Amino acid sequence: MAQAIVIHQPGGPGVLQPQTITVGKPGPNELRIRQTAIGVNFHDVYVRSGLYQTLPLPGIPGIEAVGIVEETGSQVTNFTVGDRIGYITRSYGVYTSERLLPADLAIRLPDSISDDLAATLLLKGLTAEMLVKQVHPVKPGERVLVHAAAGGVGRLLCQWASHLGATVIGTVGNAQKAELARQAGCAHTILYREENVVERVQDITNGKGVNVAYDSVGKDTFQGSLDSLAICGHLVNFGQSSGSVAPFEVSALFAKSNSLTRPSVFHYARERSMLDSMSNNLFNALEQGAIKAEPGMAFALADAAKAHEMLESRERTGALLLKP
Ligand SMILES: NC(=O)c1ccc[n+]([C@@H]2O[C@H](COP(=O)([O-])OP(=O)(O)OC[C@H]3O[C@@H](n4cnc5c(N)ncnc54)[C@H](OP(=O)(O)O)[C@@H]3O)[C@@H](O)[C@H]2O)c1
């Protein structure tokens, strides 16, 4: 028997209900894992609230965790009992003490990365890798705008882009977050509640605009991101913390020959070789000090609702995790 958090209907944090579940035997290509740390992501909030209707209900949310292999399926050759693995998944079923997992998703973790760190780093770190290495490969000398620059993905993104030689401009909700964003490599920070983001970007870039805007906030920031772009600049909308972006007139891109992308990390990591390459890049970036990350603030699995409340409050500045 395993302890899980189950959602029966969408709603506020209170719909995250503790429940006991049965975990069966692994199928031929599956692992049974005992989970040691579970990452909490904004995606989980979208699923819980019903903004994303991608989890069939009743269902167990969550998209990343770390655990120990307890049993392997008959066809599994690359993992054995006792292996320490992490994973990201678009199929949910993560907020639980034990689970079955397709072996194809498991990532062997370097000894230098603790369970708690990996559980809060994998999804955000692979997303940052996708953004700065693949969706818009950042080049030295580029001007980069990052929204929610003190957030989980945001801080990794700022560090990595600045390590690659870009001048990073970060938008943040308050002065404390501005300090964190500067520590993460932002050369300039914009307090978007007090300052006009587009005007400040134009000032900072001497009217040139940015080569790329990484925008995870969506509804509230989309137009400002577009207006902040340089000629041939690239708007990468990779999230919607403030809500869905309104319908968009494609011809608006013509004014500055801009491009727009809406990537998902699960597409970029859809094949084993892609996942391996991205996770190697991430682990190397950590090892070489291009990015630094700390384990998140931990909550008991049964207190998942409290973790969601904190994530939505926008008060916190670090990652969050659940401990089964
Ligand atoms: N496309 C992908 O494959 C992919 C993968 C992973 C994550 N993501 C997305 O990346 C984003 C960041 O994820 P994260 O887990 O690292 O979260 P996060 O950035 O740590 O938290 C969200 C931040 O967004 C800012 N924000 C602005 N308007 C907001 C609003 N109306 N409600 C809530 N927050 C608002 C807040 O920072 P300020 O107070 O500074 O404004 C808040 O701290 C999310 O949108 C997530 O869905 C996308």
UniProtKB/TrEMBL annotation:
Domain of life: Bacteria
TM helices/strands, residue ranges: none
SMART domains, A to Z: PKS_ER
Gene Ontology molecular functions: mRNA 3'-UTR AU-rich region binding; NADPH binding; quinone reductase (NADPH) activity; zinc ion binding
GO terms for cellular component: cytosol
Pfam family, one: ADH_N
Domain Enoyl reductase (ER): from-to ranges: 11-322
Keywords, comma-separated and alphabetical: NADP, Oxidoreductase
CDD domains on file: QOR2 (cd05286)
Coiled-coil blocks: none
Record-given protein name: Quinone oxidoreductase
Native source species: Advenella faeciporci
Source taxonomy: Bacteria, Pseudomonadati, Pseudomonadota, Betaproteobacteria, Burkholderiales
Gene this chain is encoded by: qor
